[in-house]
């Protein structure tokens, strides 16, 4: 039983992170930031054609959020610059185009609506950001099942973060 629990450490990590964010202030901003960190982690791994880069991106892109805010720049603007740089880096180092473009598309499909959510009413924004985050779990599942681009452990952790946090943000906003 201990081995089975140890193998599920990514699930425990993702769920713990979701619960902590829900306890300490889940809102449209946290949902939007979370989904955008996630898509950049996948995008970076594809751009550098190195799976481990996705885990490094969790910390790295969180630092970008804080640095942007300290500099008075919206985090999403800094992320847009990072995304363009990742795309350029991916082309420059000749990363596999299919993976690079698929992750770029996913970044737009999940990340852009979450940024738009920041400019809607608090309830509408929370719903859109929460849905963007929760539906990102489908992308996690695709990458988990294919075992491509990012480590399975990251996809697993991300699923267990995305769904409860996304739905939780919607519920909390609707209850307010």
TrEMBL record:
It comes from the Bacteria. The chain crosses the membrane at residues 52-68, 75-95, 107-133, 154-175. The keyword Membrane applies. Keywords: Membrane, Transmembrane, Transmembrane helix. This is Uncharacterized protein. It comes from Actinoplanes aureus.
């Amino acid at each position: 039983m201990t081995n089975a629990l140890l193998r599920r450490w990514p699930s425990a990590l993702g769920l713990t992170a979701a619960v902590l964010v829900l306890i300490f202030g889940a809102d449209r901003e946290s949902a939007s930031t979370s989904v955008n960190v996630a898509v950049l982690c996948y995008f970076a791994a594809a751009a550098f054609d190195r799976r481990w880069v996705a885990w490094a991106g969790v910390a790295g892109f969180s630092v970008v959020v804080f640095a942007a805010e300290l500099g008075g720049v919206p985090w999403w603007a800094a992320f847009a610059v990072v995304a363009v740089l990742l795309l350029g880096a991916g082309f420059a180092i000749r990363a596999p185009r299919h993976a690079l473009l698929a992750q770029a598309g996913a970044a737009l499909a999940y990340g852009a609506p979450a940024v738009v959510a920041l400019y809607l009413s608090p309830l509408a924004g929370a719903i859109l950001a929460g849905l963007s985050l929760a539906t990102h779990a489908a992308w996690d599942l695709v990458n988990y099942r294919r075992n491509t681009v990012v480590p399975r452990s990251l996809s697993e952790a991300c699923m267990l973060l995305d769904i409860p946090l996304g739905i939780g943000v919607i519920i909390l906003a609707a209850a307010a």
